Fold this protein.
Amino acid sequence: MYSSPTFFLYGEAPKQAEENFLHLEPLDTRSRPASWHIRPHRHEDLHHIFMLSGGAGEMRADGVGQRAVAPCLMLVPAGTEHGFAYVPETTGRVLTISDVFLRGLCAADAELASLFAMPRVVAVGGESASVLGYLDRLGRELAWHAPGHAVAVRATLLQLLVAALRLDRLGEAPAGAESGDGRMVARFRELIEARFRSHEPIGAYAAALGVSVSRLRLACRRQGCGAPLDMLHARKMLEAKRALLYGLSSVSEIAFALGYDDVSYFVRLFRQIEGVSPRRFRQLRGDEALM
């Protein structure tokens, strides 16, 4: 069965990332030699933040294409199969963060972890200069070791993550949405990420948030996220697709691992969301990758 290649940085042999690994480079360092086309690949314990400052392209992450037009951020969680097709001469920066380092930073504010719940494109708009400023400061700190270097790196990186979080929330929330709804949905996403393999119903998630199911449903609707159950199933299906592509487990084993006792229900749900059965998805994606 086909599996996309795993790299440390793109084109480099896999290796264990250091706990505080942080790397910043121009976008064209790897995209220009590759004729602006980065083939699908993965990084086991490295997250990416791409800042497109000029040009455009398409990010394909876990089989889903997302258009990216500068200025924007592209957020890619560790373990995600991702590739890019850029318009020639697209400019920007690529920031790579080890999973251990990121988890330590997110301890300061649990909402930051939701940035990497799934791959996505975030419009930057008029905040482009600010975001590029944070990246410039990071670049200077990474290039030399002045007094307070480690603290300065963490502080600047936290500022960048907070800016990305606010831009992401701004893009989600329709005008007039209550700020409390945004916080509730962010916490709900964090719970999904931590517990999506369990058998828990939506009521258990609502109870953990200290609200009723109807209140959670209203917050999700106001934030334009769809129904809470749909959000939960979408995360489960994302994990199912990864297991189908990168693992050898049977459809039944994947269903049980994701908390579905009824395999037939899992197959129907997968077909409803993806348009094909799990077995057909595995076959088609493997065939496409080998073309």
